[in-house]
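Re: weekly structure request thread

Next one in the queue (146 aa):
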Amino acid sequence: MSLYDVFFALTRVEIHLWDRVDEALRAEVDVPLGRFEALLVVRRLGPCRILDISRELVVTVGGTSKLVDRLEETGLCVRAPNPNDRRSSLITLSESAAAVLERGEAVIEATLRSHLGAHLGGDELAALLGSLRVVRRGAESPPTAQ
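Done, posted below.
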């Protein structure tokens, strides 16, 4: 086994799971997973800036701005002037977003239960989550000298 094998196995699983969850969300709440994830970030942070969402999702500010534009167009979020910085807006969830989030989270849970939970037990899932957290912390840290 090589790191190359681990990398490609991990990315294939991620792609498969993303596609299944995305399909289920689109079918049930008409919101793709990328947008749904942004809604979750805004709910967790409360009123926040594009930059805050961008950092959480690890995507560009420009991409995040377009993502928020789409959420705003569909009535799931609202932009308001930032009283502390005239150059930015504060993003909040609309009233209709609550129902989308509630239903969407149930859809995600059911989809992951059938595509992930059906193959791993509780201890295995906990170990996997622990390992992924370690890898993510390492990936987000500055590289060390070789």
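Residues 17 and 115 are 7 Å apart (CA to CA). The mean pLDDT is 93.
Next request, please.
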